[in-house]
Amino acid sequence: MKKTTKFAVAGLAVGIAFSAVSATAHAQESWTMTTTWPDNLALIEIDRHWVDLANKLVGDELKINFRAGGTLMPGTSVFDATETGSIEAAGDWPGYWAGRSPAFSPLATTTSLFNGVDYLNWIQQWGGFELYQEVYGKYNMVYLPYGITNNESGFMGRTPIKSLADLDGKRVRLSGRDQGRVLEELGGSQVTIAGGEIYQAIERGVIDAGEFSTPGVDYEAGFAEVVEYWATPGWHQSASVFGVMINKDAWDALSQETQEKLKIAADATMAWSLSWSERGSTEGTIKFQEAGVEISQFSEADLARIQDITNEVIVRGACEDKMHAKVYHSMISYMEHYANWRDLTVPFNMSRTIDNLPSLKKIEACL
User: Going along 271-336, which residue ranges are E strands?
Assistant: First the structure.
């Protein structure tokens, strides 16, 4: 039988004590997190899903205390608060920060390019995740994409828009720089207002039409009460990404194991959000129809024209900012690479089949 010395016993006691202190330290780790979404917008469910799952996975190592958007600070302030460490984390839509860097725009959504599965593929396997870290990293943050919604509703309002010709002279609530540039080429005028103000803007005739999110989210926001017409598909945002901004110092204070658990929660929430959104879009569409909203679809010719204009706008924007160009270069490279398999599987493929893409050579010249 092996004899245990008093030194070994003492060492064992120290090890146990150290482990207890370490566990206690993890148990005391607490984050304050908010989001850009108030309680009355359904997109907050994506944030809540990640927080709930993350808190279950990390156990006693970390507690994320979540507050709805607007309860701690205005939604527009969450970027600065996370960057400086005033709060540890905040849920967001990257496009809100495009004024700081145009690269945030394609990280949030694209005009007539990616659908939801494209974003999932690109983030997980074609280098997208690393680009989120590069862009947000310039602002002392780590970013975990954890939400994807597919094609947005389109334009809703009290004025019929059945073709691109009907956009001429119209005032449309539209988010995104590239989206606004495409609309201007079509003769429309971009109006920028917060999502929570769209209902009143349509009701009062401040805008001719507006867009916000998917049919499920738009219905929950009450749009069916004030709109009469709906023009689809939502070419302006062919899909959208949401995620959590995490202060870099708060992230670095976590163990690698806890960091991995937060990433796992993000991946799981991303898959959940895509199907949650599509189910909600289906039910929302039915409810809009039952409310008597007239739905029209843009023709193939109209969509082809939008694609041509979009391609020019993407190249123009890429040549104005190198990081913007780098993100789009990665996205278009993915589309071209994936086409080797994707186009053989039509009509059962999981991505958009596009023959007319923005010029990769022109973007490379801007890089």
Answer: 294-297
